[in-house]
Design a protein that fits this description.
heterodimer; A: alpha+beta; nine-stranded mixed sheet; two-stranded antiparallel sheet; 14 helices; elongated; B: alpha/beta; four-stranded antiparallel sheet; 6 helices; 30% helix
């Protein structure tokens, strides 16, 4: 019955034929839409990639809850709070373990050309968990010796060819904050907005490298809970029971807290969203131009169809279907180029720019909206198709 | 005496004006005529005398300003856009230029006409289109684009397209003007033969004196008026 219905309804695919019998025009249209799509993919990809990059380390923390100072605004301006608060948190029955983390920027000397550059240094007790990475525990053991650091091989190249030297078996020594350190292992974290590179060391070494650090003061406290604990409940109870010089939040809120800083307190979000909007507008103009000139060129034919008895609605449907076809045909190359360009960006900037399903679908709907909106605008021209004028 | 309501076309004191105010022109002045089913009527007259305007009014392409105009018994004076649109499905039109869709093949162009019929499957409509193209002698040119057809062939496709919608009235506006005389003759003969097979009335506007003999009746128009037949 359905099929039968389809067979009676089926008509000549006029929209498809109108487009495909003019290969040059459809090629221009597809190139234009794909260009707009690529622009949107790039801008939104950069934006999300930069936001994701700001929490690469945060995401790796082996913790359920995080303690920070209420004065901390973001990873580039962390304030200290008394380490004792972690001991107090241990008193809660659901808490199974804690890790005190120092977090600050130190000067790293590139061992190859001796230039210095600011690097994010994390200090923790090597006997306690820090990252969820499976072989991190083994690497952490090397930090029990004084003056040892783990270097992030995703750090920018300006810090020197540390990981390639290390992997070739060479002894890598350099200066951090004017003190000699030795690289005892390589980790993979990734650079962010604030930090071009990362290093991890023991609390002991950390304090030696930054002697100005107040005694007993840490920047981040990691708290692990029993499996199955109600995280929100523990957060509430700790926030009530601990003094107000510390703020407790779930790891997820900590990640959002950091992302939010970059989203709301910097112009990055605005800049890239504006870039994507430009792509959208350029696409609208191109599709409108194509559809408008297509309708204008075929005006006598549309008028003929109206004279034959086709109603205006079925002709509007033809233009709408042209828009739909263009959006699908333009999206596919945009998506594929987006994938390729993301890979290129990942390789050259080490930013975690990935094709996400939500972005892929948002851009599809933007392109669809762009094409259908332009089709709607081009339909106005159809009103000029006067069947009385064609005789 | 024939029953007037069975007529394909009844026109009584039809007036039409173009323009406004000072420049207003009275292009059709009190036209009265009728066409009975299966009749072939030719309309001649100097250019600018209002022939084409009359044709567009009968074809329900323009709003009737004044007078009675009934097609298949339906009053067009004061008819809504929708009524006129539906009526057009029963009126076939053949234009001076062929007005084929450039992006469609001959077969697809004819099917645009056949697609107006409801209740047939796609296959059946395609078969009908092929049948019509065979009837106009173009069975070997089914998948050619208008671009690749000669003037005469294009006009044949246009006839096939008009007839594929099974109209009860066929309006033709100088269908032979773009053709050489022998091709023009062929086209008109074909048009008449096929229309009669469908018992479809034909109203043809023409300048061409060589084809006047196909008409059952000849009407002459001058200055917006139909002259009394001689």
């Amino acid at each position: 019955m359905e099929l039968n219905n389809f067979l009676t309804k089926r008509k000549i695919p006029l929209a498809w034929l109108l487009l495909t019998r003019q290969p040059l025009r459809i090629l221009v249209a597809i190139a234009g839409i794909a260009f707009a799509g690529i622009l949107m993919f790039m801008q939104l990809g950069f934006r999300d990639g930069l936001f994701d990059a700001s929490v690469t380390v945060h995401k790796l923390f082996d913790a359920d809850l995080v303690l920070i100072s209420p004065r901390s605004k973001s990873s580039i301006s962390m304030s200290g709070f008394p380490r004792r608060r972690l001991v107090q948190a241990m008193a809660h029955k659901n808490v199974t373990g804690t890790t005190a983390v120092n977090w600050n920027f130190l000067l790293w000397r590139n061992p190859e050309n001796l230039s210095t550059r600011s690097i994010l240094a994390l200090g923790f007790e090597p006997s306690k968990p820090l990252l969820i990475d499976s072989d991190f525990e083994i690497k952490a053991k090397t930090l029990t010796n004084k003056g040892r650091v783990l270097f992030d091989d995703l750090s920018r190249d300006e810090f020197g060819p540390i990981s390639s030297w290390f992997k070739s078996g060479r002894l890598v020594e350099t200066e951090v904050a004017g003190k000699r350190v030795r690289v005892s292992g390589i980790v993979s974290l990734g650079p962010s907005f604030g930090a071009d590179g990362n290093l991890i060391t023991s609390s002991e070494t950390y304090l030696e490298l930054s002697p100005g650090n107040p005694k007993g003061s840490i920047e981040i406290g990691l708290v692990r809970l029993e499996k199955g604990s109600d995280i929100e409940k523990v957060v509430r109870s700790l926030n009530i029971n601990l003094p107000s010089d510390v703020k407790v939040m779930s790891l997820k809120s900590f990640i959002d807290f950091e992302k939010n800083y970059w989203k709301s307190s910097t112009s990055i979000g605005f800049i890239f969203t504006l870039g994507a909007a430009m792509g959208f507008i350029v696409g609208c103009v191109i599709v409108y131009q194509i559809l408008y000139s297509d309708v204008s060129d075929h005006l006598p034919e549309y008028a003929t169809l109206m004279a034959m008895g086709y109603n205006l609605r079925s002709l509007l449907g033809v233009v709408a279907r042209e828009g739909l076809i263009l959006s699908i045909m333009g999206y596919i190359p945009a998506y594929l180029s987006g994938q390729a360009l993301y890979a290129l960006v990942r390789a050259s900037t080490k930013l975690p720019v990935e094709m996400s399903f939500s972005r892929a679908s948002i851009i599809f709907f933007l392109i669809l909206f762009m094409c259908m909106g332009s089709a709607l605008a081009a339909m106005k021209k159809l009103a000029d198709a006067d069947p009385a004028e064609i005789f | 005496m024939k029953n007037i309501n069975n007529n394909t076309l009844n026109i009584a004191s039809l007036n039409h004006w173009f323009g406004h105010g000072e420049t207003r022109r009275h292009v059709l002045q009190s036209i009265s005529m009728e066409i009975s089913p299966g009749e072939v009527v030719l309309l001649t007259g100097p250019s600018g005398c209002g022939k084409t305007t009359l044709l567009t009014l009968i074809g329900a392409l323009r709003k009737v300003q004044d007078g009675d105009l009934k097609v298949f018994g339906k009053q067009l004076f004061g008819a809504s856009r929708k009524t006129r649109q539906n009526l057009r499905k029963n009126i076939g039109m053949i234009f001076q230029g062929h007005n084929l869709l450039r992006c469609l093949t001959a077969e697809q162009n004819v099917q645009m006409g056949a697609d107006l019929l409801s209740g047939f499957s796609y296959k059946a409509r395609r078969a009908q289109s092929r049948e019509w193209l065979r009837a106009v002698g173009l069975e070997d040119h089914l998948s050619k684009l208008p671009h690749d057809l000669s003037g005469g062939q294009k006009q044949r496709v246009a006839i096939a397209r008009a007839l594929a919608a099974r109209p009860k009235l066929l309006l033709a506006d100088e269908p032979t003007s773009a053709l050489d005389s022998s091709t023009g003759r062929e086209i008109v003969d074909l048009l008449k033969k096929l229309a009669l097979e469908q018992s479809c009335s034909v109203l043809m506007v023409t300048h061409d004196p060589r084809i006047l003999d196909v008409a059952d009746r000849l009407l002459r128009m001058e200055d917006g008026q139909i002259l009394p037949s001689v």
